[in-house]
Specification:
By secondary structure, this protein is an alpha+beta fold. It has ten helices and ten strands. Strand 9 and strand 10 form a beta hairpin. Helix content is 41%, strand content 9%. The chain is globular, with a radius of gyration of 19 Å.
């Protein structure tokens, strides 16, 4: 299946795990140890975002992979050696023994865990369904405070050691970035407004599911945090985001307070961050948590299956809003599980976060 596009062609996406508003806050700190890395990260992200937009608009459709669909991942890891040229120097290929670099090994394992969940839970070979090779680069930039997916590969910074630590520490961050590729090859959600918030939320959902799957955790056992382990000891907070309780992930003198809303009553109207894609994603995130918690057991089995069915079903438009996505999850629950409790649980989850369910 080719990536679906909007009416004006491919939707170019450059997706980072740390929202621009967080880096902007840091860039205004009076402490140069905090401000300088944040400014460099914002500048680097801006250049990458512009480059991605130009290359995406000029890109030709990918040629379908011939032959049997692979049942094992093909991972290649590179080391940028604190430079910004991608992909860097190749340091580990599929099947190679672990290296002496823990960042390389963590990224390799995270890419593999994401491939395994997609294949074992949903029968999908890699993010494109055809065994697409997975590429990751570590040690990007100097004190680079982010990780991103640029449409072709995953890239991880080392952090500044003051606010953020190595971005390969959190397996859900690795899976989050790779899940942007899954969205690119399926619904190709436009990265702005509510469709952009859905794009971010889907990555949080599958990032959390990969973590839960790799740890053998049920929905009840999971922490539902995104990026736990990324914040340095000096930061007052647990993670970048909380799916269970949006707005509570951090409350810090330097970073400020987590601005994510938990329901439509708190929806943030803003022109920043492509219309608040990292902020308003808290609303569909909480809807997924509420559904998974209500259903119990392993979240990837029923709640995750419903979300996957919508993402890959072909009916979700590139500019979908929360209401359209919600209606499709209700329909998917009915198609997949019939008139059992799953459909009612989906309805209740969206109702609790205030997303309207009226027909179009």
């Amino acid at each position: 299946m080719q990536p679906r596009t909007s009416d004006d062609g491919l939707n170019p996406v450059f997706c980072t795990i740390v929202p621009p508003h967080v880096l902007d806050k840091l860039s205004h700190s009076g402490d140069p140890r905090l401000a300088d890395p944040a400014r460099r990260t914002l500048e680097a992200d801006g250049l990458r975002r512009d480059r991605r937009r130009l290359t995406a608009l000029a890109a030709a459709p990918a040629t379908p992979t011939a032959g049997a669909v692979p049942s094992k991942p093909h991972r290649t890891l590179y080391d940028c050696e604190n430079g910004t040229s991608l992909p860097g120097t190749k340091v580990r290929d599929e099947g190679d023994k672990p290296t002496s670099d823990a960042s390389v090994n963590r990224a390799y394992a995270g890419l593999g865990a994401t491939f395994e969940l997609l294949l074992s839970a949903y029968g999908r070979s890699s993010i494109d369904g055809k065994g697409l090779p997975l590429i990751g680069s570590v040690h990007y930039g100097h004190e680079y405070n982010n990780a991103f997916f640029d449409g072709e590969q995953m890239v991880f910074g080392d952090g500044d050691g003051e606010i953020f630590l190595d971005f390969t520490y959190a397996i859900d961050v690795i899976a989050h970035e790779l899940a942007h590729g899954l969205t690119q090859y399926t619904a190709n959600l436009r990265y702005e407004g509510q469709s952009g918030a859905l794009n971010e939320s889907v990555s949080d959902v599958f990032g959390s599911l990969v973590k839960q799957y790799s740890l053998g955790q049920s929905a009840e056992q999971a922490d539902w945090l995104i990026g736990a382990g990324l914040l340095a000891p000096r930061v007052s907070g647990d993670a970048l985001r909380s799916m269970k309780a949006p707005g509570t992930a951090y409350d810090d003198d330097v970073l400020g307070k987590d601005p994510q809303p938990a329901s439509m009553e708190e929806y943030v109207e803003t022109e920043e961050d492509n219309g608040g894609v990292h902020i308003n994603s808290g609303i569909p995130n909480r809807a997924f948590y509420l559904l998974a918690n209500a259903l119990g057991g392993n979240a990837w089995e029923r709640a995750g299956q419903i979300w996957f069915d919508v993402l890959t079903g072909g009916e979700l438009t590139a500019n979908a809003d929360f209401a359209q996505f919600a209606r499709l999850t209700v329909a998917a629950a009915g198609s997949r599980f019939g008139e059992r409790g799953e459909k009612e649980a989906v309805l209740k989850a969206w109702s609790e976060v205030g997303v309207p369910m009226a027909a179009e």
